[in-house]
Amino acid sequence: MERVISGIRPTGNLHLGNYFGAVKNFVRMQDEFECMFFIADWHSLTTHPTPDNIRRSAKTILAEYLACGIDPNKAPIYVQSDVKEVLELYLYLNMNAYLGELERVTSFKEKVRQQPDNVNAGLLTYPSLMAADILMHKADKVPVGKDQEQNMEMARLFARRFNRIYNVEYFKEPQSFYYTSHAVKIPGLDGSGKMGKSNGNCIYLFEDDKTITKKVMRAVTDAGPQAMNSDKPEVIQNLFTIMEAVSSPDTLAYFNDKWNTCEIRYGDMKKQLAQDICAVVAPIREKIEAYQADDAFLESVAKQGAERARERVAKTISEVREIIGFHA
Ligand code: TRP
User: Fold this and answer.
1) Is residue 197 in a domain?
2) Are 22 and 157 in a shared domain?
3) Residue 10 in domain
4) Distance 62 CA to ligand 1 centre (A)
5) Cβ distance 284 to 69 under 8 Å?
6) Closest Cα to atom 12, ligand 1: which residue?
7) Is the CB of 148 under 6 A from ligand 1?
8) Does the reported pTM lie above 0.85?
């Protein structure tokens, strides 16, 4: 069966956009592939050198993914820093990663602009650590967002280069996996593009009905349709797009009709939308709370995940040592 690995940044809580855009698809994938997921806590040191309780943050992310339906028996989840094996492969890959190519990575250049006082070597070698994450699992598919394409290209480059330098056919090139047919891009509530934490227009999965309803009722709208069957401006289309993800087809058709006949009342639509969002979020929130309250359980999931990952990568690491010429 094809192997899937993906890393999750431990910064920030999951929102509706993450859920429909990615996590729901992880849940789908765990039945189709041999999946593993991990929380990239070491990577986060490249931007947050002195994290405030990083273990806690990792477990919060873990609780949220479990609440969304990741089943650790199908798809083990581990914390990157619990599987030290990756460090060794990171070191080997770094020996054949060149300054020029690392400096040309767009996300590196962006970070240089964002944190000019902390242009650290970890930032520069972010792509080698990510490549090590992937290659040590011999993953076939890596579900990532478009923003990760360059890092994925680097992983493929490092795989090819390893094979060439050591004259082996060892690593295969991992492919980016976009769930184009299923991923739903959830727009923000402020009429400005995508839901994202940096845009401050999110509905978080941990939020209660009241908070969510308030946010939805405050969503930006306009003066209403000016003619029958007219195109929807972006702010209105956004509400319909969210509705498409969370509401029944009947509900969606009902409000579409109201739009087309110029009878729509945004207040009614938002009330319905808030209710349907809450119906999706509330059961997840309840699970998040239950998992968060059970630290021992979260620790045990992480521990088992790490054990499974270590079993899976041990062979790769020892083969790589042997290929380079060290004791296996
Ligand atoms: N760079 C990824 C992101 O920012 C996180 C990540 C780290 C990752 N290692 C990975 C993703 C390995 C996929 C595979 O989202």
Assistant:
1) no
2) yes
3) yes
4) 15
5) no
6) 7
7) yes
8) yes
